[in-house]
Amino acid sequence: MKSYIVGNWKLNFTVGEASIYLHKLQKKIPNYRDVEVIVAPSALALQTLSLQIDRHKMKLAAQNAYHRDYGAFTGEISFSQLRGIADYCIIGHSERRYIFREDDKVIQKKVEAAVRNKITPILCVGETESERAFGETADVIRDQVIGGLAEVSEEDIDKVIIAYEPVWAISSTKSAKLAAPDEIAEVVKLIRKILKDAYGEKTAENVPILFGGSVNPSNAGAYLTVPGVNGLLVGGSSLILTEFADIIEVAKRVKS
Ligand code: 13P
């Protein structure tokens, strides 16, 4: 399986800044066949970047979209509008869950709409600090994985990516802590078991599982070698071109 390195730019960069960043990154990195590089700019920059992106080198992800294709939904963009522009969409990021109150029902509709529109959903799951402290991690992960994938058929499950992002490890979280590789391995194993129970052994192995939470060039290697981890979802460090390029380089090294 390929490695996936996803840069989630969140609410950062103007369209101009995003365009310059992409230009420089494309010049800096070679075309790595076994590392899929994906950047997720703000929705406003997607169209511009889609016209300049070298799709052999990298792909675009949206950070969010609405599950209905069209209609009276002021302020929203749809997965059908993203067709031909973005190949991926981050869905259920903890910032969407907790700041914008998206629950598993909303997220499951978005995952369904993404798959229907041939956009690969990157479904984010992860427990908060207090859920972890109360020993609820496994239950939270199970609910979020099963809830998020409820509308995905056996035929489509290999068109989905899952990202495990413990909320307490995200750099913008107050007093963020680094997740230990052992702890990540355990949750990733649980996610594969949930997939296996729902979709069968073979399929469970084919779903890429990424890790996210304070990833940077110095810890990327350790996280990429956690058993079962197929890539990284990077926030803060992806905003710094040299750091993101270094993480891609680490992924390439780990792969070979
Ligand atoms: P950081 O890498 O800044 O911790 O962000 C992680 C994240 O939320 C990526 O989606």
Main attributes of the structure:
256 residues; TIM Barrel; alpha/beta; globular; binds 1,3-dihydroxyacetonephosphate; eight-stranded parallel beta barrel
Task: Itemize the secondary structure elements and their pairings.
Layout: E1 3-8, H1 15-28, E2 35-40, H2 43-52, E3 58-62, H3 79-82, E4 88-91, H4 94-98, H5 104-116, E5 120-125, H6 129-133, H7 137-149, E6 161-164, H8 181-199, H9 201-206, E7 209-212, H10 220-224, E8 231-234, H11 241-255
Parallel strand pairs: 1-2, 1-8, 2-3, 3-4, 4-5, 5-6, 6-7, 7-8
This protein binds 1,3-dihydroxyacetonephosphate.
1,3-dihydroxyacetonephosphate binds at residues 8, 93, 165, 170-172, 212-215, 233-237.
How would you characterize this protein structure?
With 256 residues, the protein is α/β, with parallel strands linked by helices. The protein has a single domain, classed as Aldolase class I (TIM Barrel, Alpha-Beta Barrel). The protein is built from 11 helices and 8 strands. It has helices at residues 15-28, 43-52, 79-82, 94-98, 104-116, 129-133, 137-149, 181-199, 201-206, 220-224, 241-255; strands spanning 3-8, 35-40, 58-62, 88-91, 120-125, 161-164, 209-212, 231-234. The protein has an 8-stranded parallel beta barrel, surrounded by 5 helices. It is globular, with a radius of gyration of 17 Å. The protein starts with a strand and ends with a helix. Residues 8, 93, 165, 170-172, 212-215, 233-237 line the site of 1,3-dihydroxyacetonephosphate (13P).
